[in-house]
Amino acid sequence: MVTKKTALLTGITGQDGSYLAELLLEKGYEVHGIIRRSSSFNTQRIEHVYEDPHTEAQQLFLHYGDLTDSSNMSRLIEKIEPDEIYNLAAQSHVKVSFEVPEYTAQVDALGTLRLLDAIKETGVTTKFYQASTSEMYGKVAETPQNEQTPFYPRSPYAAAKLYAYWITVNYREAYGLHASNGILFNHESPRRGKTFVTRKITRAVARIKHGVQERLYLGNLDARRDWGYAPEYVEAMWLMLQADGPDDYVIATGETYSVREFTAWAFEHAGMPIRWEGEGVDEKGYHAETGDLLVEVDPAYFRPTEVDLLIGDPSKAKEKLGWEAETDVKKLVEIMVDHDLGMVSRLVTLREAGYDVIEQGVD
Length: 363
Ligand code: NDP
Ligand code: GDR
Prior knowledge:
Blueprint: E1 6-10, H1 15-26, E2 30-35, E3 60-64, H2 70-80, E4 84-87, H3 94-99, H4 101-122, E5 127-133, H5 156-175, E6 178-184, E7 187-188, H6 197-209, E8 216-218, E9 224-225, E10 228-229, H7 230-242, E11 248-251, E12 257-258, H8 259-269, E13 274-277, E14 284-287, E15 293-297, H9 315-321, H10 329-352
Parallel strand pairs: 1-2, 1-4, 2-3, 4-5, 5-6, 6-11, 7-10, 8-15
Antiparallel strand pairs: 9-12, 13-14, 14-15
The protein binds NADPH dihydro-nicotinamide-adenine-dinucleotide phosphate and guanosine-5'-diphosphate-rhamnose.
Guanosine-5'-diphosphate-rhamnose binds near residues 133, 185, 195 and 220.
């Protein structure tokens, strides 16, 4: 008889955690997720897979916890004895990390150490996935970036993630753990947090289209990113833990585009083509036909140090894991804009019918 595998996910309420939970449940795993106590619900992204604890065939279990609490981590690992641990939890916003640098290090850097040390100390045999990031490359040394490209972090977030990357490598080498780093480039979806640039754009496009927002304020339009589709990226995480040995892998599409291009495609897809005028911080985007001002740069969104250009070389993942990105950026824009148009349309309809709804409710 094949015994069911058990996985423990930190960050299960986030974009990636929700897609990974779905994937693992589909594969027949028993899934355990760590959630933070919050004064309001923070489980919207996993509501559709949530199961009542009184259900007999329950496959998804949620536990309160926090990466800043070592004893909590140890207790959960000891109790659950997971076959696989996916460490997705993080203060994941680069700009916010400049405001809360110490907290970001506590969670993203030391949180990873706490988990690895809990594995070592409890002696539980498990495989470990660390959510590493292309932000570690930071200031461009070479393109495209692969597993050998030197790191040069440009934010407290990236510096904290760099520690997490190396402590994962160290515990692998020192204690023989099956611990792998996925160096994931930006990946987006309709579940992306609303303050990350892609979702901020697609949501604003939908709101402008439906007349509930006038203008989209952005920061650096010239930053270039390698944007992929999140559901495909969680598949790569799983594949890394199915490999015979642990290793580090770049996961990316291999293509890069600017924030300006993403913005233009999103407006265009919603039937509001824009033309750009002006230079630098005065840059503005106008509706090509009506002349309405739709996009404006607000320096408040600039970062003290920026990552100008990211483009990944995912050939190792293709060769060793058989993984390849399928959704290109234009398709991604369509998926996200279509989702947000639907979301805002339902919101407007409900509000017009007199319901006092907040956006989350129809997301
Ligand atoms: P999200 O910001 O959507 O989710 C972050 C998750 O971490 C949430 O579940 C959040 O809980 C949880 N969390 C935050 N702080 C703590 C804490 N102190 N203790 C326990 N849980 C905590 O991130 P994504 O899903 O986009 O990303 C997943 C991981 O991958 C992150 O580590 C991120 O840094 C990394 N990454 C992401 C990339 C991307 O493009 N999306 C690219 C490369 C790496 P709550 O819901 O309560 O806030
Ligand atoms: P990033 O994603 O910093 O790459 O980190 P984000 O979408 O926040 O920024 C991408 C680029 O867009 C520029 N930008 C803006 N960004 C935001 N958030 N808001 C704006 O208004 C805006 N205008 C321009 C930024 O300056 C930047 O250059 C994400 C996170 O998911 C990390 O956790 C992850 O590790 C990396 O991706 C890979």
